[in-house]
């Protein structure tokens, strides 16, 4: 049996799901005040258009096309002046994201929320990863237009990766919120702890999760959140993989952790929490579970953690 705490190395990129497949070359050291204008002037430039938690897509059967050239983006009224530079494809094609009014689209375009896009598999992994990057940046700029030091309106800089205040010279940088998401396993590695929040779809159980607080390590955040939410004391913690999560700019940090106690005491954040055997989990993953319980969708890192644990025994 694999030891999760000695063999918990990050999975191969092909195994990652959801928003973790970004392949753009960011070239962060080359960003400057002319990065966005130069990128928009490139006839190969491609843009993602987002707004209000949704992306503008061109449906094509069971998939969709999220890309627009500069002229098309301008025709749709996208704010290309406020575009952010995501990076470059291997051939040097610049890729950007811009805000668009998703309520006023022609009939051949649809505005679809980010969660539905990944659950329905509308985009391939690289496009979904780029969407996570663009959505997070556009959301941050939308909510950080004014300097937090003096209140003056700030301006975008460095291709969208900084805002500068002309009044006090304050500099502000994009926000990423770290969240630990963990699968607690019994000491004998035969059972895992899953919980459900009131807002989950009926019957779905998932890994516990919570924000990392200032001055806190990942390991201690795992221990604290598990204790707070389920009353379980945690010993060993092992990092496994991470996943961008554009709701609005979160980084999910996936871990395995060893439960030293087994008596569950849930707090107000959970509706229920239970121990599940590996056999019970495999049955559901194989489609033989009936209405016993449901797993998180494949695009979520919780699904990766549970599936890898179920296959390891």
The main sheet comes to: 6 strands, mixed
Percentage of residues in strands: 25-35%
N- and C-termini, Cα separation: 5 Å
Helix content: 10-25%
Secondary structure category: alpha+beta
Count of alpha/pi helices: 7
Choose one word for the global shape: globular
Question: What is the N-to-C order of secondary-structure elements (H for helix, E for strand)?
Answer: HEEEHEEEHHEEEEEEHEEEHH
Question: Which whole number gives the mean pLDDT?
Answer: 93
Radius of gyration: 21 Å
Quantity of strands, as a count: 15
Low-confidence stretches: none
Domain Nudix hydrolase: 174-300
Keywords: Hydrolase, Magnesium, Metal-binding, NAD
InterPro entries: NAD-cap_RNA_hydrolase_NudC, NADH_PPase-like_N, NudC-like_C, NUDIX_hydrolase-like_dom_sf, NUDIX_hydrolase_CS, NUDIX_hydrolase_dom, Znr_NADH_PPase
EC number: 3.6.1.22
Report on this structure.
- The chain has 313 residues and is of the alpha+beta class.
- Helices cover 23% and strands 27% of the residues.
- The strands form three sheets. Strands 1, 2, 3, 4, 5 and 6 form a six-stranded mixed beta sheet that branches. Strands 10, 11, 12, 13, 14 and 15 form a six-stranded mixed beta sheet that branches. A three-stranded antiparallel beta sheet has the order 7-8-9, with no helix packed on it.
- A hairpin with a 5-residue loop joins strand 4 and strand 5.
- Helix 6 (278-285) packs across helix 7 (301-312).
- The longest helix is centred in the middle third of the chain and has 19 residues, at 125-143.
- It starts with 34 loop residues before the first helix and ends with a helix.
- 39% of the residues are buried.
- The mean pLDDT is 93.
């Amino acid at each position: 049996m694999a030891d999760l705490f000695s063999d918990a190395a990050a999975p191969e990129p092909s195994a990652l799901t959801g928003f973790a497949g970004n392949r753009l070359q960011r070239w962060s050291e080359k960003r400057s005040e002319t990065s966005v204008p130069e990128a928009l002037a490139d006839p190969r430039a491609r843009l993602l258009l987002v707004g209000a938690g949704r992306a503008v897509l061109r449906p094509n059967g069971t998939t969709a096309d999220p890309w627009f050239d500069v002229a098309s983006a301008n025709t749709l009224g996208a704010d290309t002046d406020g575009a952010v530079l995501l990076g470059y494809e291997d051939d040097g094609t610049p890729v950007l994201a811009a805000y668009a009014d998703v309520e006023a689209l022609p009939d051949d375009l649809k505005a679809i929320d980010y969660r539905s896009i990944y659950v329905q598999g509308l985009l391939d992994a690289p496009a979904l990863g780029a969407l996570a990057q663009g959505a997070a940046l556009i959301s941050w700029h939308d909510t950080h237009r004014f300097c937090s030091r003096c209140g003056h309106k700030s301006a975008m800089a460095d291709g969208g990766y900084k805002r500068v205040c002309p009044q006090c010279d304050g500099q502000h940088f994009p926000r990423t919120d770290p969240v630990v998401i963990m699968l607690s396993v019994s000491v004998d590695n035969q059972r895992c702890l899953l919980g459900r929040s009131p807002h989950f779809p009926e019957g779905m159980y998932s890994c516990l999760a919570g924000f990392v607080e200032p001055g806190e390590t990942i390991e201690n955040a795992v221990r604290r959140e598990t204790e707070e939410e389920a009353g379980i004391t945690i010993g060993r913690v092992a990092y496994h993989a991470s996943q961008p999560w554009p709701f609005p700019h979160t980084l999910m940090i996936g871990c395995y952790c060893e439960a030293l106690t087994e008596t569950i005491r849930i707090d107000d954040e959970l509706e229920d929490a239970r121990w599940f055997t590996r056999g019970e989990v495999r049955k559901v993953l194989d489609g033989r579970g009936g209405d016993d319980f449901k797993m998180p969708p494949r695009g979520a890192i919780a699904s990766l953690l549970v599936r890898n644990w179920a296959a390891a025994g």
